[in-house]
């Protein structure tokens, strides 16, 4: 049985018995796995895959008895590049990130471009008052506050838990 460096550091991995007749195949597989693990969070579009470059922002959804609050981390984006759409049973947050860096020196020139788009739809399980919904964007964080409808607030019922 052989172990790769990937198996040593990934607790969810299970060691697998491999055919040891071709050590170069094993090395190639281990190197491919290492690069996939390392580059998984980076956009390596021109080098690794044919799919469109994209990113998925972190989104937190919290709820209290009066409203639903959604926070999305969108660093480096302009408010003009963010689109928020609300309907009776879901909210959709879309955006496109464009970044270009131009670095010139005496003996070099470096231009980096990165593009990514995202679309997140979050289902809303309660009746809302869409006319009073508000969104703000500050320091790379989008915050959307969606008040519940008076009917939804009225229907909220606390259930006591009995210890047996």
Element layout with pairings:
Layout (H helix, E strand, L loop, with lengths): L4 H5 L13 H17 L5 H4 L10 E5 L3 E7 L8 E5 L3 E15 L4 E15 L10 E5 L2 E7 L2 H6 L9
Antiparallel strand pairs: 1-2, 2-7, 3-4, 4-5, 6-7
- Our Rg estimate from Cα atoms comes to 24 Å
Strands of the widest sheet, in order across it, are 1-2-7-6
β-strand percent reads 35-45%
Q: What general form does the structure show?
A: flat
Count of helical segments?
4
Number of structural domains: 2
In CATH's first tier, which class of the largest domain applies? Mainly Beta
Structural class: alpha+beta
CATH architecture of the largest domain: Sandwich
Percentage of residues in helical conformation: 10-25%
Distance between the termini: 51 Å
Number of strands: 7
Average pLDDT across residues? 78
Report on this structure.
By secondary structure, the protein is an alpha+beta fold. The chain folds into two domains: 36 residues, no CATH class; 97 residues, Immunoglobulin-like, CATH 2.60.40.790. The chain is 20% helix and 36% strand. The protein is built from four helices and seven strands. Strands 1-2-7-6 form a four-stranded antiparallel sheet, with no helix packed on it. It starts with a helix and ends in a 9-residue tail after the last helix.
Write a brief structural summary.
This protein is α+β, with helices and mostly antiparallel strands and 164 residues long. Helix content is 20%, strand content 36%.
